[in-house]
């Protein structure tokens, strides 16, 4: 009995071991995620947010008086400005310029005016004293001349040597008298020039004070016409000029009157997607303020040079999108949601991006039969792509099953469809040859020096 139980126990254990090994998955039965190649309409899109701006506008400029160098004001601060998008009539309030810079210069100008006035008054007094001394010297020279003439008359009976000495003294007195009169004329002109220079300095200081007084009237900026006010923005992602902004007195404008029939959406595309953006591409433009609105547009310009995002190492490129048509409800600076159509195919075969692998210049997929037992490493030619799928121009047909990850035996599989790769390579070589021929036809003229 015991022997029979032992035999039954052994048989049960062997059966369990057999079942375990039978149910254990092998490498041949490896579970792989797959997807099916689809065929149909295919669109490649790039999504971005932007901001409405007018391509053309009239400007409210910095008051002309601030451009006068005599003010010595090189920067001004906008103390207050009405909200962007506000509608104004001619003469309505737009902005106020902070008066601090004007106050500082006005105080300096008044101090300078006082100094120049004192210098002018002092120059007149000094000139009067100097010319008075000159006149006294002329009178003394005249008296000395008359004295010498009397001595000549009294020396008529004197010895010849005495008479000669008297004549020489008379000649000296006459010459000194003439020199003093000529020197007085020159000194008079010299002193007049000094006084004139001091007066000119005083006049300039007075004009500067008067100019600064007139600037106070220009601190309040009013609208020159009716329209919608837009903030002025410098190129290259410059900040908008608004309240508390500091700008140069040579700045082109403080605010704008955007022309609403020339609207554009300015957006910034990252460097990964910028190669897909081309001028003329169609754009669907959504307005965040009006979710029900959808406008048409097209890419009008693409920046040649990228720029860094603030507090980031990522580079972006400015792209301007022309808004087709106009809408009275739209206002400058409204946020837009832009969908740029970078590619379109009416009918194409496409597969998931995860299913396409690359090896240098070679692109390929892993085709799988329904039971998953046979896997083929197939070369493909890819076309346009979007965020999820890529078009397969050659190598894949509708309904093919593609693996979404590489199988474990990927290295042992050989490439199928190398004729596709050769075709792609031949087309690339032909295109390169044509470009070389075109470059050879357009050669720069050789520089020759004369």
Task: Give a description of the structure.
- This protein has 450 residues and is an alpha+beta fold.
- Among the domains are: 29-43 and 345-426, conserved putative lor/sdh protein from methanococcus maripaludis s2 fold (Beta Barrel); 57-96 and 221-258, Beta Barrel (OB fold (Dihydrolipoamide Acetyltransferase, E2P)); 102-217.
- Helices cover 35% and strands 31% of the residues.
- The protein has helices spanning 2-23, 100-154, 160-215, 418-441; strands at residues 34-36, 38-54, 57-60, 75-81, 87-88, 93-97, 220-222, 227-228, 230-231, 246-248, 255-258, 263-270, 282-287, 290-302, 307-308, 315-324, 335-352, 357-359, 362-368, 375-379, 381-385, 389-394, 401-403, 415-416.
- Helix 2 runs antiparallel to helix 3 (160-215).
- The protein is elongated.
- Its main location: other.
Question: What keywords describe this structure?
Answer:
450 residues; alpha+beta; conserved putative lor/sdh protein from methanococcus maripaludis s2 fold; OB fold (Dihydrolipoamide Acetyltransferase, E2P); 6-stranded mixed sheet; 6-stranded antiparallel barrel; 4 helices; 31% strand; elongated; disordered C terminus
Short account of what is shown:
35% of the residues lie in helices and 31% in strands.
Strand and helix map with partners:
Elements: H1 2-23, E1 34-36, E2 38-54, E3 57-60, E4 75-81, E5 87-88, E6 93-97, H2 100-154, H3 160-215, E7 220-222, E8 227-228, E9 230-231, E10 246-248, E11 255-258, E12 263-270, E13 282-287, E14 290-302, E15 307-308, E16 315-324, E17 335-352, E18 357-359, E19 362-368, E20 375-379, E21 381-385, E22 389-394, E23 401-403, E24 415-416, H4 418-441
Parallel strand pairs: 20-24
Antiparallel strand pairs: 1-23, 2-12, 2-17, 3-11, 4-6, 4-10, 5-8, 6-7, 9-11, 12-16, 13-14, 13-17, 14-16, 15-16, 17-22, 18-19, 19-20, 19-23, 21-22
């Amino acid at each position: 009995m015991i022997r029979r139980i032992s035999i039954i126990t052994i048989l049960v254990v062997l059966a369990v071991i057999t079942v375990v090994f039978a149910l254990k998955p092998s490498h041949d039965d490896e579970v792989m995620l797959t997807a099916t190649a689809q065929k149909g309409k295919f669109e490649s899109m790039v999504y971005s947010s932007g901001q409405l701006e007018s391509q053309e506008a009239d400007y409210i400029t910095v008051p002309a008086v601030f451009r006068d160098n005599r003010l010595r004001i090189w920067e001004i601060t906008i103390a207050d400005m009405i909200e962007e998008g506000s509608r104004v009539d001619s003469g309505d309030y737009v902005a106020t310029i902070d008066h601090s810079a004007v106050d500082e210069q006005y105080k300096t100008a008044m101090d300078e005016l006082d100094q120049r006035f004192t210098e002018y008054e002092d120059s007149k007094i000094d000139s009067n004293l100097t010319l008075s001394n000159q006149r006294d010297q002329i009178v003394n020279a005249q008296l000395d001349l008359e004295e010498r003439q009397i001595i000549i008359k009294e020396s008529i009976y004197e010895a010849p040597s005495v008479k000669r000495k008297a004549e020489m003294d008379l000649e000296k007195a006459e010459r000194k008298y003439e020199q003093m009169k000529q020197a007085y004329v020159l000194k008079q002109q010299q002193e007049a020039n000094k006084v004139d220079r001091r007066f000119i300095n005083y006049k300039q200081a007075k004009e500067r004070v008067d100019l600064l007084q007139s600037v106070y009237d220009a601190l309040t900026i009013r609208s020159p016409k009716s329209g919608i006010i837009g903030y002025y923005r410098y190129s290259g992602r410059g900040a908008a000029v608004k309240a508390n902004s500091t700008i140069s007195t040579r700045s082109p404008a403080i605010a704008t009157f955007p022309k609403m029939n020339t609207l554009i959406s300015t957006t910034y595309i990252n460097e990964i997607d910028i190669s897909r953006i081309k001028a003329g591409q169609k754009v669907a433009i959504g307005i965040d303020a009006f979710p029900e609105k959808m406008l048409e547009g097209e890419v009008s310009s693409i920046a040649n040079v990228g720029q860094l995002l603030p507090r980031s190492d990522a580079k972006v490129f400015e792209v301007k999108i022309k808004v087709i048509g106009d809408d009275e409800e739209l206002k400058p600076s409204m946020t837009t949601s832009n969908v740029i159509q970078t590619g379109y195919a009416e009918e194409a075969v496409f597969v998931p991006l995860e299913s396409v692998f690359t090896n240098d210049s070679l692109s390929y997929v892993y085709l799988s039969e329904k039971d998953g037992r046979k896997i083929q490493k197939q070369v493909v030619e890819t076309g346009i792509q979007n965020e999820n799928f890529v078009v397969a121009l050659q190598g894949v047909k509708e309904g093919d099953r593609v693996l979404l990850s590489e199988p474990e035996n990927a290295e042992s599989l050989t490439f199928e469809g190398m004729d596709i790769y050769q075709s792609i390579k031949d087309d690339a070589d032909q295109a390169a040859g044509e470009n070389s021929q075109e470059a050879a036809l357009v050669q720069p003229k050789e520089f020759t020096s004369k």
